[in-house]
């Protein structure tokens, strides 16, 4: 009867400009799709070159190499008898477009340019690409000679069209178009398109996955249809982790779910679905049927090919499933761990070094590395040959098999407690016990000699010796002495990262991990060029509140009992002298605000787009039970003073895993000045006027 169609989508761990590796992963996905009986295969956005090429999109080399990869795909027997839908940049009439190239049996059927470009948050597509603004319009695209020689075609359709096969009709969306208020699938569905495809380059943010799933399911709930979503996965060269979640939905319900976090470079989902289920679902939606009679039709590219078989009565079809979402604590455990693994293996380093202070932030970072080791062992156990090969190369042992996370952690993870005369024995013991429980190679050292040497140089030159406040010094002296300790730790961290393995008779170097959380960065509560300065930071986009919940998750799931005492201890920098052997300095007292308040300020500043006055207006209602308007005004002013005074620190912020939409990352997500008029005179005057009125 020709009603059961088998389609495949995938999540690929592509890498920007890794044309050879990207091609190999595309081929593997096509092979798997064909082995599952699929007649159509969808891949992620810009999968040929990798999504994160950034300004490399300007280079003609990127276009050339993308077409060279396309040539390999077209001429390969592996791509025969299956419609392949791949993503790459295309130059048409001297404008660059983010495109889908859809081909079958050495013939290009359609090049479909992206209509709605992503240009918010981490996305800058309008910098590199032009949106296709000619709705339902198709032009001739003149193929490069290398493609003409394979396909025998001089020109192919380029524009906003759909494919009409012998048995159904397919229409494409590209990533952002699903999120747009006027998504193409709405009118495509009214025009008879039954299968919608979406190739995405969508990155992980905590608590975001359900939004994407809801959008996909709602796309077909209103007007029926099959929706197929492909997504990139992994770290393709920067701060983002693309979190897979490939899926297939029909008539508003999920029928196939891919993993959100995985070390598999290639993951393929296939589903067999009955087209008659789409048609019968649509039949009773009278409002859609009435709208369909008025719709402006899409150009159709006729394809002499069927996604179904003539005799398919006995073919089983897929049933709806319940999507399983990860908790935020699971997301923190898995997302940054997978990102770290990609960074480690692709940078060809031998492991990580972490300054482990015994506090929540560095302990959370250590737990993420331990989670990474868990994921590696699980992947090897499940037969992942790529992960095994990478693990063997990293530890420099061709016979090695990672089976125990603690043992693997010992090989790839070095932790270092850097004590000073201001450090307590409690934090030293906590760091040592946690290192023992996760299995890291642990170093204890004392920085006092280096600190005294640095301060001694200053004293010799100036004839003055700075003192801490508790010893009669000024706040300037005390802060400078704290910063010297912090910066000495950074210098030593890099020294030990470069030479620890050499001293142990092992090859390679270590990547230094930072552990400043998103709230501390927002407030600027860190020393510029201290241990927050590192190669990468897996928790730089995560709030203190979420990190505390993650620590509790690790206690329960990894049985890391050492974390209990870390959880109960007040956060402290331990840079000021002890009082009777006990820590007197605490983070929240130093900052003049709590971590809970910081999270609220951060979300209002970035997500709610609130300046000082708007933030004050919102908080007098949010906090009316606990603060007077004058107290709220004082808190808001203090936050904005501290934020603006310290904003310059964001320009050198260590590349961090992006996990929160209120991240202050100055690189490209949170674009602000770093030299402010920190008096905020006009803004604060507006607040004061409102306080007096109230």
Automatic annotation (TrEMBL):
Alphabetized UniProt keyword annotations: ATP-binding, Ligase, NAD, Nucleotide-binding
Protein name per UniProt: Glutamine-dependent NAD(+) synthetase
Gene Ontology molecular function: ATP binding; glutaminase activity; NAD+ synthase (glutamine-hydrolyzing) activity
PROSITE patterns in UniProt: CN_HYDROLASE (PS50263)
Enzyme's top EC category: ligase
EC number, UniProt record: 6.3.5.1
Family indicated by similarity: In the C-terminal section; belongs to the NAD synthetase family.
Residue stretches making up the CN hydrolase domain: 5-275
Stored Gene3D superfamilies: Carbon-nitrogen hydrolase (3.60.110.10), HUPs (3.40.50.620)
PANTHER family listed in its UniProt record: GLUTAMINE-DEPENDENT NAD(+) SYNTHETASE, NH 3 /GLUTAMINE-DEPENDENT NAD + SYNTHETASE
Subunit comment: Homohexamer.
The keyword Nucleotide-binding is assigned to this record: yes
Domain of life from the UniProt record: Eukaryota
Signal sequence residues: none
Gene Ontology biological process terms, A to Z: 'de novo' NAD+ biosynthetic process from L-tryptophan
GO cellular component, one term: cytosol
Pathway the protein acts in: Cofactor biosynthesis; NAD(+) biosynthesis; NAD(+) from deamido-NAD(+) (L-Gln route): step 1/1
Entry-linked NCBIfam families: nadE
Pfam family, one: NAD_synthase
